[in-house]
Structure formats: C-alpha cells, structure tokens
Amino acid sequence: MDFAFLVVVIGIGGLLAIAFWDITVTLENGPHIGDLPTWSLELRISDNQSLIAYQLRFCSAFLNLILLSLHRRAPTRNPQPFEDLLEDPEYDQLSDRDELEANLRDLIQDLATVRSRAMAADFSEGRLETFVGSPQKELAGTQNQYVSYQVTTKSDFQSFQKPEFTVRRRFTDFVFLYKQLSKEYPQCAVPPLPDKHKMEYVRGDRFGPDFTQRRAHSLHRFLKRISLHPVLRRAMLVINFLESPDWNQHMKGRSSRAASGSEQGSTGFVDALADTFVNTFTKVHKPDKRFIEVSERANKLSEDLANVEKVTVKVARRQGDLETDYADLATQCQKLTALEPAVDGTLTSFAASVTTTSQGFKSIHDHTDQNYLTSLRDMDAYIQALKTLLRTREAKQLDFEQLSEYLAKSAADRDSLASSHGAGMGASGFLRSKVEDFRGIDHDQARRQRVRKLEVEIERLTSEVELSKKSSEAFDEHTVKEVADFERIKSIEFKDTLGDLADAHVDFFQGTIETWEGFLEDMRKEEDQRKAVGAS
C-alpha cells in the first residue's frame, strides 16, 4: 500500500511539474510485454523558436510503475504475465522495483535538464540589446530629488512580454543590481558601475547635464556588458530589472531576505575577512602560467589606457579652448557690423559660420569628454574587476595548497608517532614526555590516542583536500571562460567606442566643410551681384 501511494504521489508531482513547465506531453502505445503495455513519451517545450523534441522510453517511468503496482495488487490477475516481463531479456534490467524507481528519478532529472537547456538556449542565443539615456530629474525642487535614466530593451527572448519596452531606473537601482549579481555570481567578473564618489557630489553638480550624460554613457556600457555576458544575461534579476514595473517591490523583497541572511552569516564575513588578510601575505607555490599571462596583459592594457587617457584629456581640453575661441571670434565679428555697415551682410554671414564651427567643436568636445574619455575609465574599472576575479581564483588555489601542506604535516606527525614507540619527537616530544611523567600518564596510551586523533584529522583533511581541489579546478576552468568572455566583450566595446568617435569626427569635419563651403558660395553670389550692378 505504501509503495502504490508513493507511486501515485510521484506521478501526480510529475504531472504538476510538467504543467508548471509548460510542456506538451504525448503518450503513444508501444510494444506489449506480457499483458503490460509500454509507452513512449514525447516532450515539446512551448517555445516558438526553440522546439525541443525529447523521445524517452516510458517503460522506466511512472506509468509502467503504476501498472506494475496495480498488477501486483490485483488478486484476480494471473501472475504469469509479470513473470514473462521479468524473464524478457530486453527488459530484464527493469524487473526490480528499485531500478524502476531509479529510472523514474532519472526521467525527472532528464525533464529538468531539457527545461534548463531550453531556457539556456533561449537566453544565450537570443538577441538582447539595451540602451540607457535620457537622464531626467525627478521630484525637482524637493529634498528627495534624483535623476532617473531611460532603459530601452530590444529582445526576442520568449520570457519578455514585448519585443521592445522601456522603463526608467535611478542610479541606486543599478547599484542594487550590481551588488546582487556580485553576490550571486562570484565566479564571474561582474562589470563595475561608475564611481559614485565624485567631486560633483561635493560641489552639488550631480544634477547638471554634463555629469548626468557622462553617467548615462557609463550605465549604458554597464548594461551592454551584462547583455553580452553568456551567464549574467540569463539571470532572472537582470530580466526583472529590464522589464518589471514593480522593481521597487522586488528590490525591497530581496533586500529583506539579504538582511536576514547577513544576520545569520555574520561569522562567515569574519572568516572571509581573515582569509583575505592571510592570503594577502601568502604566495602560491605553483602559479598557473595561463593566468600569469592574463594578469600581465591586463596590467599592460591598464598602462596603455592610462597613457591614452592623458592624451585624450589634452585633446578634449584643446577642443574646449577652440570652442571658446571661435565663440569669442563670432561675438567680435557681430560687434564689427556696427562699425562697418558697408559689409554688414558679409560680417553677419561670417559670424554665423564661425558660430556654427564653435558649436561643432562643442559637439566633438562633449563626445570626447563625456563618451570616449569615460569609456577609457570604465574599461580600466572592468580590468580591475577581472583582476579581482584572478585574485579570487588564486585564493582558491592557495586554500588547496595550504590544506595539502596541512594534510602532509599531519600524515608525517602520525607516521613519526607510530614509529617513535614513545621516544618522543624532538624538543616538543621531550617536554610532552616530562609533562606526562609529572601527571602520571602512560606514554604508550597517550601516543595511541594522539595517533587516533591524527588519523581522524587526516581523514577529515583528505576529504577537504579533495573538495578544495575540485573547487579550485572548477574555478580555474570557469575563469578561463571568463577571460575569453572579457576579451570578446572588450573587443566589441572598443569597436563601438572607436567607431562612435570616428563617426563624431566625420560628422564634425563634414559639417565644418559644408558650413564654410556655404559661406564661400554666398560670397561668390554677393560678388557676382556687385559685378552685375557695376556693369549695368
């Protein structure tokens, strides 16, 4: 009775899981074994783009298990068909009830695997584009005023309700997203946010257009890096951030759960701080050449970016000076019109052309200062995030090496005790022997107790070393993937930023050419008119 009830409960749970997963189930009759039918199961996940057909023999699933249970319980049934089932060579591995239950568990795991792979394919292969811009001051004139940014998303993910939608988020929302991703994905180099400790907060200019536009560009790069990351782009927190209209409630719920978790894990923070302090002054014995090369390339790139930033700062300053000079020249030309009325039209046209050129210098200066220069600093911060990941990986390796050394030391102490036969171990053994004599303790019994304690400790350390080794190796492999993702995202970002900078310069020079060609054309027309008037 208990077995049949367990089968029914598992079957109902499986059906509920299938309904929850939005999976279409089709059962087709298969060959009969004795008087028991077998079934084939076809699963189709409701996805317009990624249709997954998964064929399984359901003779190892809960339907045959239920039929088998009913067959065993029915008093009027002939047991011969069941014996035929047991004797069938094709299904001899499914004759045992435990194996049937094991196959049922395997089927449930297969269903979960199909679902997770379908979601991973949907999120990793789909299109996800994000755009951040249009900073807007909210609650202006009040004590709680802040700046919100428009986040536009274009995607073909089936998880989104629309292919294109827009929400507004403030900077604290981005900070919350970054902190949660860093906490939930410690194995990833989570893209950093722009630094909040700026002089604009001290001077009160954090609501000015220059600061908000610069921050909008940085936030755009932050979300774009996440959208290009194969793991972070699948995070449900990111999906909710991009789409959810109730983001504040979602954020409060996560904050409350995080607060309760932090109260329970306060000792973990102290342990992590102690490990960080110890690892800072300890070097790994066998550094991995792969990550040494990555660290060297990262340091070299940081130095190159610093040099480019210095040059770019000078270029932006020069562009700003030219903007001011051209604006002053236009103002002085306007003043000359009152002194030289005979060339009023020419001076006015010239002043207008100079003003347009000044505006062009302002546009190129704003792009260089707010977009390109900020992108260099953001990339340097991203490199620091990669270095932090490398240090975390090194700490994993260091933990494994220290545990291995501790295990080797414990094994050596055990072997020394086992072979010493009470002779002691150097000065410490001599002192221990004298203390035991003073306390009247049997040396052989004390030695055997120490050996037993060491054996227990060695057994515990052996399991911890194995776990630490697996964790370190897994983290190494994931770090290799993270480095590859970083290089790919870096290449895309450099291509975009340099392409935008080139487009901005092309627009500037093209606009300047059109402005002064138009001015020269006006001068030719005016000269032709004067000649025509003089000839007549």
UniProtKB/TrEMBL annotation:
Localization: Cytoplasm; Endosome membrane
GO MF annotation terms: phosphatidylinositol binding
Residues covered by the PX domain: 127-249
Main location (coarse class): cytoplasm
GO cellular component: early endosome; endosome membrane; phagophore assembly site
Pfam families, sorted: PX (PF00787)
Family named by the database record: Belongs to the sorting nexin family.
Name of the protein described by the UniProt record: Sorting nexin-4
Species of the source: Leptosphaeria maculans (strain JN3 / isolate v23.1.3 / race Av1-4-5-6-7-8)
